[in-house]
């Protein structure tokens, strides 16, 4: 107990309590606003954390629980409207830990977003083991995966597939085709056009955002953000009614043919 007490005194001198609080506060501020989180391919984060501490402190902070937290969750990011990915956990910390956090942020800045983050656990990490306090954060109830029909792994895999489908749709249907589709749908000359208007405008807006973004990584991030926030079915571009309309537009069919084919397919779609 005496050793633990001395350890806590040393940690407090380094600002460890403030460090843990800064992690929780930043994370809470981000997830509290409903912003989705994303995984990255960032690696070696805990090693970077240790390597940038003073040499005499590294042994003390070599912790299995914290290593697991940093390597598993330390690379989480949120994506801004311009496609920029920013760390979800790391921000302003006490001076003692600043070099470590800076090193972690540098690794994350060079990493690539590779999935939508989902979890069925409220607590990420292990807050306490015995006398020891560790890095950890909590997810709000709304962000915890509650679906009984799909496991977390299945839901994550589904999001990855939706990313691929959306990328394919954006590549196959140019912005000009979306412009024509939206124009046709707004004229209400297509049967039950209101059923496609939402996804058409959503897809067009995404095309526009990507069009003004030259950095390829940011363009991909915008797609990940769209996948995480899209209404159900919107990412399945080619297999839905908007896909059939866009196919006909890209094929250069006349308006009369497009109108007739759309009505026929919509009738079948409604029956199904």
Helix and strand arrangement:
Elements: H1 2-13, H2 16-31, E1 38-40, H3 45-51, H4 64-73, E2 77-79, E3 85-87, H5 98-109, E4 113-116, E5 123-125, E6 128-129, E7 132-133, E8 136-138, H6 152-172, H7 175-186, H8 194-211, H9 216-229, H10 241-250, H11 255-271
Antiparallel strand pairs: 1-4, 2-3, 5-8, 6-7
| Number of helices in the DSSP assignment | 11
Mean pLDDT: 90
User: How is the biggest beta sheet arranged?
Assistant: 2 strands, antiparallel
Structural class: mainly alpha
Principal-axis shape equals elongated
Please count the beta strands (DSSP E, at least 2 residues each): 8
Helix content: 40-55%
Instruction: Describe the oligomeric state of these chains in a short phrase.
Output: single chain
Low-confidence stretches: 1-6
Instruction: Summarize the helix and strand pattern as letters.
Output: HHEHHEEHEEEEEHHHHHH
Number of structural units classed as domains: 2
Q: End-to-end span in angstroms?
A: 69 Å
Output the strand order for the largest sheet.
1-4
Q: Please indicate the percent range of residues in DSSP E strands (runs of 2 or more).
A: 5-15%
Round the Cα radius of gyration to an integer and report it: 24 Å
């Amino acid at each position: 107990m005496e050793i633990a007490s001395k350890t806590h005194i040393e940690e407090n001198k380094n600002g460890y309590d403030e460090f843990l609080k800064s992690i929780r506060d930043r994370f809470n501020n981000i997830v509290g606003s409903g912003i989705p989180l994303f995984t990255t391919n960032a690696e070696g984060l805990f090693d970077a954390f240790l390597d940038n501490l003073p040499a005499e402190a590294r042994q003390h902070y070599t912790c299995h629980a914290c290593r697991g937290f940093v390597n598993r969750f330390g690379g989480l990011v949120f994506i801004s409207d311009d496609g920029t990915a920013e760390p979800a956990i790391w921000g302003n910390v006490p001076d003692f830990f600043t070099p470590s956090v800076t090193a972690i942020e540098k690794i994350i800045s060079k990493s690539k977003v590779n999935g939508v983050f989902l979890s069925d656990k409220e607590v990420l990490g292990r807050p306490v083991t015995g006398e020891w306090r560790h890095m950890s954060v909590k997810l709000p109830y709304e962000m915890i995966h509650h679906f009984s029909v799909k496991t977390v792994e299945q839901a994550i895999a589904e999001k990855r597939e939706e990313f691929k489908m959306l990328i394919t749709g954006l590549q196959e249907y140019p912005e000009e085709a979306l412009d024509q589709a939206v124009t046709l749908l707004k004229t209400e000359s297509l049967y039950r056009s209101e059923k496609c208007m939402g996804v058409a405008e959503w897809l067009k807006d995404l095309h526009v955002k990507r069009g003004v973004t030259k950095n390829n990584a940011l363009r991909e991030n915008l797609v990940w953000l769209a996948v995480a926030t899209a209404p159900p079915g919107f990412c399945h571009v080619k297999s839905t009614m908007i896909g059939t309309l866009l196919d006909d537009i890209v094929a250069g069919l006349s308006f009369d043919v497009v109108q007739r084919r759309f009505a026929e397919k919509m009738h079948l779609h409604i029956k199904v």
